[in-house]
Design brief:
Blueprint: H1 2-6, H2 23-26, H3 33-40, H4 56-72, H5 79-105, H6 120-144
Helix pairs in contact: 4-5, 5-6
The structure holds zinc ion.
Zinc ion binds next to helix 5.
Length: about 160
């Protein structure tokens, strides 16, 4: 999930394997707004969209997983799936943050990291805020888990 968020599984692109060579596999999650926009024509998906170039998606996954883990304590057979979602969400959050840094530093456009339709300063504020959340939340969660890998206090 970490790699997926950051760069996508780009190596599948040229292999032409059905499904695995599809855009969603080889593109980084933040850049999914490109194919999604070409399908849906929804204006909020125009690249770079605030929806995908943010901590929004991984944070929603993490909240869902924490909610699920809490619920699954009563009914433990789904617990490992919720934990898998939580770990995937942590990886995705860090990976997407890395992608945002990448976009900001190595952007192909002269204006740098700009959310479509936003001003430069609003985009920079958005970037800083989402890096704080996108890196801070996983950091706090991993610390709360005690770094044991199996998890303690969050379980
Ligand atoms: Zn991007």
């Amino acid at each position: 999930m970490l790699v997926w968020g950051a760069s996508g599984l780009f190596f599948f692109r040229r292999l032409h394997i059905p499904i695995l060579s599809d855009q969603f596999f080889y593109m980084a999650v933040p850049d999914w707004d490109i194919p999604l926009y070409s399908w849906t024509r929804l204006r909020f998906l125009l690249h770079r969209s605030a929806t995908f170039h943010s901590a929004l998606i991984p944070i929603v996954l993490l909240i869902a997983s924490l909610w699920g883990i809490r619920r699954a304590k009563l009914n433990s057979n789904s617990l490992r799936w919720w934990r898998w979602l939580r770990d995937g969400g942590i990886g995705l959050s860090v990976g997407m943050s890395a992608h945002l840094i990448w976009d900001a530093l190595l952007s192909s456009t002269k204006s740098g990291f700009v959310i479509y339709g936003w001003t430069h300063s609003a985009s920079q504020t958005w970037l800083a805020l989402n890096l704080l959340v996108g890196l801070g939340v996983p950091f706090v969660m991993v610390r709360a888990m005690g770094g044991s890998g199996t998890g303690n206090s969050l379980n």
